[in-house]
Design a protein that fits this description.
It is a single chain. By secondary structure, the protein is mostly helical. The protein contains 21 helices and 2 strands. Strand 1 and strand 2 form a beta hairpin. Helix 9 packs across helix 10 (181-196), helix 9 runs parallel beside helix 19 (379-397) and helix 11 (200-228) runs antiparallel to helix 18 (343-374). The model is unreliable at 247-255 (pLDDT under 50).
Amino acid sequence: MNLFETTVNFFNNIMWNHNLLVVILIVCGLIFTIKTRGVQFRLFKHMCKLLFEKSTAGKDEVSSFQAFCISTASRVGVGNLAGVVAAVSYGGPGSVFWMWVVALLSSATAYIESTIAIIYRDKDPKGGYRGGAAYFIKNGLNLPILSVLFVIFALICWAGVFQIISNSVTESFHTAFDINKQITSIILVVLSGFILFGNRNKIVRVLDKLVPVMAGLYLLVVFFIIIKNINLLGATIVDIFEHAFGVKQFLGGTFGSVIMFGVKRGLFSNEAGSGSAPCAAAAAEVEHPSKQGLIQALGVLVDTIVICSATAFVILLSKNNIPAGLTDMPLLQEAFRSQVGDWGVIFTALILFLFSFSTILGISFYARPNLYFLSNKEWPQEAFKLFTLVMLYLGGVGHNSLVWSLADLGLGLMTIVNLIGVFPLVPKAIESLNDYENKFINKKGL
C-alpha cells in the first residue's frame, strides 16, 4: 500500500469507520427537521404539486422541473444500483433501514442547502445563474478559502465517482453481453463526449427526457418482481428491521457497520448535505427560493425511499436464489435473472448504463459553476470534460478498490465543508420558508 492510499484510508477511517459523518449527518438532519417543523412531512403533498406547475422559465433558462431532473439525474444513478448493492452486500439487510433514516432526515437538509443556494447565487453573464456551496460560503459568510476547498474536494469525489460509474457499466456489460471492457469503455466515452462538448442546454434537454423514462422503466420491472414475491415481502421487511436493531449484530460487533454502510451509501446516492445538488437548484428560474428547496427535498425522498429501496428489495427477495459469494453488479444481475430470466441480466446492464450516463451528465452540470468559481476562463471547463472522459476510460478498463475510497474521501470532505457553510445561514432558509408558507400555502390554502 503506497503513501497516497494510506493517507486516503486514514482520513476515511476517521470520517466513516469511526462514524464521524454518520453522527454529523443524522444530527444535522434532526436539527433541520426540527427547525423546519418537519417540512419534508408537512409539505410533502405540496412538494409533489410543485413538480407539475407550469414553468415560467424562458427558453434558455433552467426551469424548476429541469433543475429537479438535473439533481435527480446525479442522485438516481450508479448509487441506486452499485451503491445499494454495496450497502446490502457488506452491511446486510439492516443497512436498508438506515438508508431510509438518513433519507427522511436528509430531506430537510436538502431543503435548507438548496434554498440557501438560491438566496446567495450569482447572475451568470452568459444567462441564468451560478450557485452552490462555494457561492453561499463566499457570499453569505465571506470565506472564499473555504469555498475553494469545497471545489477541490468535489473534484476529488467526482474523479472517484466517474471511475466507479464506468467500472460498474463495463462489468455489467461483460456479464450480460460478454463484451470486452475496453470496448464498452470506449463506447461510454464517445457517447459522453458527444453530449459534454455541446452547450449546457443540451445536457439539460437530455436529462429532462432521460430521467423520468429510465426511473419509470426500472420501477415498473421492480414492481412486477415485488408483486411476484408478495408472499415474501412481509418477511423481508421484518428481516430489514431485525438486522437494523438486531441483538446478533450488536453482540457480534457489526452493529456499527450496519449503520455506517447504510448512511454512507445513502449519502452517496441522495447527496443531501454534500453540497452538490444545490449547484442545480441555484440554476433554476423560480419565483421564490423555498419553492426549489422543497422540490430538492422531494428529490431525496424519490431517490432513496423509492428507487434505492426498489434495488434493495430485488436483492433481498432473491437472496435464496443467488449463488453465495457474489458482490457488486454481478449480484444484482443474478438477482434479476432469478426473478425474470436471462433477459434480466441484459435489462440490468442497460438500466445501469442509462443511470450512469445520467449521473455523468448531472455531475458535469454541477462542475460548471464550481469551475467558474475558480476561474471565469473557459479552459477549465474544457479541461474538466477531458478529465471526465479519461476517468471514465480508466475506471472502465480496470478495477481498483482505491476508487471507492477516493469517492468516499471527497464526498466526506465536501460534506463537512458544506455543512460548515450551511449552519450559520440556516436562519435565512427558515425565514424564506415562513415567507413562502405565508404567501403561497396559508394564503391559498394549498
